[in-house]
Design goal:
about 700 residues; binds 1,4-dihydronicotinamide adenine dinucleotide; binds 3-hydroxybutanoyl-coenzyme A; 2-enoyl-CoA Hydratase, Chain A, domain 1; 8-stranded mixed sheet; 6-stranded mixed sheet; alpha/beta; Rossmann fold; 30 helices; about 50% helix; 3 domains
Length: about 700
């Protein structure tokens, strides 16, 4: 038997202990170990009950995700679980940490489950584009009812032990030491004459199911699960649980699981699982890098971004000083923050007491001396280099020694800003995304001299305020906006070529984007885009570039904020406007831009996505991003790209980089080299039949 699972006995109680750090995932040796240990228990005449318990920080946190996509190796998890359940003597799972996915399925192969109060149990497979494929879709409905089971599996959200106990997924809550509590529970069950209680032999409670149940559930989940493959598969499994016998439903579960496993969606979602963990690791900043102590934070500027940024820190229980230029601006900023919190209270996501606690953490200042004791200062004033330099020069004078000086600039050169201080090692970009209290992405921008402990502390702080941080280098627009510009450019160019804006947006939406590029432009503000256009470093020499934006801004159509932009707005709903079409047509005539007819959906997606992928390849060559997967994290967390596409670079890999380059060559013939010449890295990978992922692996 491997070391990862051990068998021991104290009196009549056997202990089957899993020890497979870091999260006790069900890799092949664990499955083998479980199988052998339960066989040993069955054969051990002295043992009357077995407790399945785990060493380390958690109970089994699921199947080993690194094994997915490879040929399955025997013993398969459903087989191990079925054998465990068949045992003639009682078995008890003792849960701490998280029993997730295959972990909960294994626990449901036991006859009873106990857990410490802080434990969580759940079936989060949907987040990996999968379904609980080791009989979870059949067992959970039998334990807690089909509706509650569907809610858990479709959301993927784990239940705290207390709720799981109420629902029936956990039988006993154990206070204090888990092993001692589980042993006492096992002894009690034995003394009560408890028998093996096999979930597979239970009936599903159909009292809540009528003929409309599944159709209504399907409709209810449609919006939240739009485009995803796995949720419907899960629904089909639960349908099977109430319509066919257990053994047949398990067969159906297996077929549907394999379909999920082979899907491009699951490959993309699994890629993101690892990408989101990889991006927290900076190659030359080891995990034992000392941190700076951050207790008090200042935010400069209480406008659109500053208010949301301040909320992030207050939500994490940190003291924040919000600095504005005068009392009026400060009151306005604080007022907006309060209003935001009040909206959250109104939605029931926060209590009035929590609102008061957060507001009490945020104080105001209009002078710099109000922030001199802060450990971290995030500047979020207007996007203007001269102003930012003035502010950083001032911060250099007033900020305490060792304070981290961060800028929320979306395009400006961090090195140029750092150069006005005597401490460029303390300066870093903290690029939040709007709305800053909602969007999960944080681009951390590393300057030439940014110190490693500033990076390590920023990464840790990002986690504290629940952001997904990606470290990027200095360039115009950093990673996200720099790649977003070609995407917007293509959308603009297509409008100029006579493709209706709403058609472009619909195709992008159907592909999975939260919003099409033209809707996003209107939301961000066409005036903001136009400003970027005029300040764009290395802007291609092209009079047609973003000309529609320029013309719309000239007549005051700034987007949603003025009720008119690329679209007209009745509330937030975009309505196409013939005036915009006419403007685009006139500009196309003036600039001699050929009108396209019968543009296919495929072309729209290729032009939007491949232009971005090419920019991503340039970014990798220049070392602005450390890994292709970091770029993917940026787009999924900051730009509304659906998780089932895995981000732009993974999408390129999934399509095939040779196909990406072939399509680019097609457009290069039509439009020339400026936008469509493949980046050297992309061309090279396409030629050698490799993916970005393989390139990253070979780069270490
Ligand atoms: N398989 C393989 N590796 C895993 C893993 C898994 N199921 N879960 C976590 N890991 C790895 C991570 O990649 C990470 O590795 P790294 O240190 O090299 O980056 C390490 O374990 C620690 O993970 P986290 O950084 O995420 O640690 P946290 O303490 O923040 O979170 C956790 C722990 C809540 C368990 C979180 O890791 C998690 O949610 N894991 C995935 C749970 C899951 O989705 N389980 C279902 C799997 S699918 C399944 O079971 C199919 C079945 O139905 C057949
Ligand atoms: P904003 O115009 O809404 O707010 C800027 C605020 O800064 C104003 O309230 C102003 O009074 C204040 N301010 C100006 N000088 C100041 C000073 N010396 N001290 C303190 N406060 C001062 O601007 P917004 O949109 O919040 O942008 C701020 C920064 O965030 C810019 O660098 C911008 O590029 C960046 N950013 C903006 C995003 C957005 O979507 N709005 C997204 C990501 C970054």
């Amino acid at each position: 038997m491997g070391d990862v699972v051990s068998y021991s006995r104290e009196g009549e109680i056997a202990y089957i202990t899993v020890n497979n750090p870091p999260v006790n995932a069900l890799s092949l040796p664990v499955r083998q170990g479980l199988q052998q240990s339960f066989q040993k228990f069955a054969a051990d005449a002295e043992a009357k009950a077995a407790i399945l318990i785990c060493d380390g920080r958690t109970f089994i946190a699921g199947a080993d995700i690194t094994e997915f996509g490879k040929p399955p190796e025997d013993p398969w998890l459903p087989k191990v679980i079925a054998e465990m359940e068949a045992c003639e003597k009682i078995t008890i799972a003792a849960i701490h940490g998280t029993a997730l996915g295959g972990g909960l399925e294994t626990a449901m192969g036991c006859h009873y489950r106990c857990a410490v109060p802080a434990a969580k149990v759940g079936l989060p497979e949907v987040t990996l584009g999968l379904l609980p494929g080791a009989t979870g879709t059949q067992r959970l409905p039998r334990l807690i009812g089909p509706k509650a089971a569907l809610d858990a599996m479709i959301s993927g959200k784990p239940l705290p032990a207390g709720k799981a106990h109420q629902a029936g997924a956990v039988d006993e809550i154990v206070e204090g030491d888990l092993k001692a509590g589980a042993t006492a529970y096992a002894k009690r069950l034995l003394s009560e004459g408890a028998k093996p209680r096999r979930i597979s032999e239970m009936d599903v409670d159909k009292s809540e199911i009528d003929q409309h149940f599944f159709a209504e559930y399907r409709n209810g989940m449609a919006r939240a699960t739009r485009g995803f493959f796995a949720p419907e598969q899960i629904l089909k499994c639960v349908e099977a649980s109430v319509t066919v016998p257990y053994a047949d439903a398990v067969k159906r579960e297996n077929e549907l699981f394999m379909e999920c496993m082979m899907s491009t969606h699951s490959a993309a979602q699994r890629h993101l699982f690892f990408a989101e963990r990889a991006c927290t690791k900076v190659p030359d900043v080891p995990s034992n890098t000392p941190m700076r102590d951050i207790k008090k934070v200042a935010v400069l500027g209480g406008g659109t971004m500053g208010g949301g940024i301040a909320m992030n820190f207050a939500n994490a229980g940190l003291q924040v000083v919000l600095k504005e230029i005068n009392t009026e601006a400060l009151e306005r900023g604080l007022g907006i923050i309060r209003k935001n919190y009040e909206n959250t209270v109104a939605k029931g996501r926060m209590t009035p007491e929590q609102l008061d606690e957060c507001m009490a953490l945020i104080t105001g200042a209009i002078e710099y001396d109000g922030i001199s004791d802060c450990d971290l200062i995030v500047e979020a004033v207007f996007e203007n280099m001269a102003l930012k330099k003035e502010i950083f020069a001032e911060l250099d004078k007033v900020a305490k020694k060792g304070a981290i000086l961060a800028s929320n600039t979306s395009t400006l050169d961090i090195d140029e800003i750092a150069a006005v201080t005597s401490r460029p090692q303390d300066v870093i970009g903290w690029h939040f995304f709007a709305p800053a209290n909602v969007m999960t992405l944080l681009e951390l921008v590393r300057g030439k001299e940014t110190a490693k402990d500033v990076i390590a502390t920023s990464m840790a702080m990002a986690k504290t305020i629940r952001k997904t941080a990606v470290l990027v280098g200095v360039c115009f627009g950093f990673v996200g906006n720099r790649m977003f510009f070609p995407y917007i450019s293509e959308a603009q160019q297509m409008i100029l070529e006579g493709v209706p804006a709403e058609r472009i947006d619909q195709v992008a939406f159907d592909w999975g984007m939260a919003m099409g590029p033209n809707g996003v432009s209107d939301l961000s503000g066409l005036d903001v885009l136009d400003k970027v256009n005029s300040e764009w470093k290395d802007r291609p020499e092209d009079p047609a570039l973003w000309i529609v934006v320029r013309k719309l801004v000239e007549i005051g159509r700034f987007g949603q904020k003025t009720g008119k932009g690329i679209y007209n707005y009745a509330g937030r709903s975009p309505v196409p406007d013939p005036e915009v079409t006419a403007i685009a047509k006139a500009e196309a005539e003036r600039l001699g831009v050929a009108q396209l007819e019968n543009v296919s959906d495929e072309e729209i997606i290729e032009r939007l996505m491949f232009s971005m992928i090419n920019e991503g390849a340039l970014i990798l060559e220049e070392g602005i991003a450390s890994r292709p997967s970091d770029i993917d994290v940026v787009f999924v967390h900051g730009y509304g790209m659906p998780r089932y596409r895995g981000g732009p670079m993974h999408y390129g890999d999934a399509v095939g980089l040779d196909k990406v380059v072939a399509a680019m060559e097609k457009y290069r013939k039509r439009y020339g080299d400026t936008y469509w010449k493949p980046a050297p890295l992309l061309a090279e990978l396409a030629k050698s039949g490799k993916t970005f992922d393989q390139w990253a692996a070979s780069n270490g």
